[in-house]
Write a structure and sequence with these properties.
With 563 residues, the protein is an alpha/beta fold. The protein has two domains: 310 residues, CRAL-TRIO lipid binding domain (Phosphatidylinositol Transfer Protein Sec14p, 3-Layer(aba) Sandwich); 101 residues, Jelly Rolls (Sandwich). It has 14 helices and 17 strands. Strands 1, 2, 5, 6, 7, 8 and 9 form a seven-stranded mixed β-sheet that branches. A hairpin with a 7-residue loop joins strand 13 and strand 14. The longest helix has 24 residues. The radius of gyration is 44 Å and the shape is elongated.
Amino acid sequence: MAEETQKPETVPQAEVVVPEAEKEVSTPPAAAAVVVEGEAEKAVDAEVADAEKIVEQPSFKEETNVVSELPEFQRKAIEELKKLIQDACAKHEFSSPPTPSSPSPAAKEEEKTEEVVVEEEKEQTPATEVAPSPTHVVAAEPPAATTEEEQTPPPVVETKAEEVAPAPAATEIPVAAEAGKEEEKTVETIKETIVEEITPPTVEETTPPTVEVVTPPVEPEEVSIWGIPLLADERTDVILLKFLRARDFKVKEAFTMIRNTVRWRKEFDVDNLLDEDLGNEEYSKVLFTHGFDKEGRIVCYNVFGEFQNKELYQNTFADAEKRKKFLKWLIQFLEKIIRDLDFNPKGINSIVLVNDLKNSPGYGKRDVSKIIDKFLVILQDNYPEFVARQLCINTSWWYVAYYWIYLTVFTPRSKSKFVFASPSKTPETLFKYIAPEHVPVQYGGHSKIGENEFSSADPVTEVIIKPGTKHPIEFAFSEATELVWELRVIGWDVNYGAEFLPEKEGGYTLNISKPKKITLSIDEPVISDSFKVTEAGKVVITIDNQSSKKKKLLYRSKVKVSE
């Protein structure tokens, strides 16, 4: 095939940012590169340190879905895959194969009887020799030669079926000739007896009249995935490219994957699952969507630590029925996200997955890992290339070491989508891919659910404050108005203050917020404040970084017309 003649494309590797404390970089045995973001603990042993020190390489970049912009061998692969799908639809190959029905007891008994009859016939029918039968003739051997003194005829051969009377002596016929005739007659009698006993009676077979059955033409099977009919329009190209990329453009393997996916969707009744009411709003604490990344993709958050809540854990994993319900909810959740994608070749056709590993359930709660593993298998087999990037945040050093081993089974393309970040580097890592106004407050961003003052449409400004320096933020006004702002410093450990300086000479400086030390133990991660301006002047907000590390300041503001 065409794809075999092309040189394989260089696939970017998974990315892990090395913490600042580690300056040495070495290459691990595996081929893919991972970049660990975060500060490694000093007590890490040599093996773990080696696993975290990995050469940094470019991260995953999503390819185009416009067919005309693809290489020739990829365009050819799409056409070959469409032909296979078209032929399969004509043969109804996308339907689940029928389950072979077990024969009824009567049919089994009849089949067994036929086998016994066949075996008996085989035993009666001679292959090379005829087996003796109850009516088989026993004949005496004729004398080798006759003498003149022996005038009596030879002994007559007897059969159990009938007795043969001795022939009268004839003087005109020589004794030897007479014996030969008797012997011929006896042999003929034996043959006739054998034929009568072995040859079954012939039965006249009647051939039933031939009836011509006219079968109506079979319509091609209609197949759709995620509400989009296959081979319908340009949206089909987007779907086919996902399966082809998941199988390195091996057309037959991609076709098998599509066929298995369609069959699985029918067996699991996925399309009807969308409208099913699975209840339990507590699931939304574990898995939810929030905002978009810088490319416009939906961002989905997995918060495994929520299962530390005993009540939630029991309501989700107490029995098989509840575990099955949760798995169905996961699939329903994913299906709803995918249905929001437009599948336009130039549109957004993938999502970003953020895995929060803080307080993740350990080995003591295996029900969680079993369900997650089962869901990941379903995701890998039936939802190819829907996750553009996986950001694993709040990871500990042992988790990075474990996943470094775990990722060896992934393809270089899949590994390049993973990024790991320690707790101290989580906000910074998220901001590389997601704007702060779209990052939830609990992860270092400014996005709050249900807030009214600011929204994701209000951009956040990022500023780096060097160690031992102050950074003022000034807002000048010439008339009465109201200023509203919110800010946060990643890692805090800085002094914050705000004041108003009137433009008029001799005016008094007003302290809006007295300078104070802000630490990580602050209850409110984002400082929100406001000030009503009554005269011309300026509002000055000051961040004083007296620490030995640089800090990242995030803030946004808006001016409201004073009533």
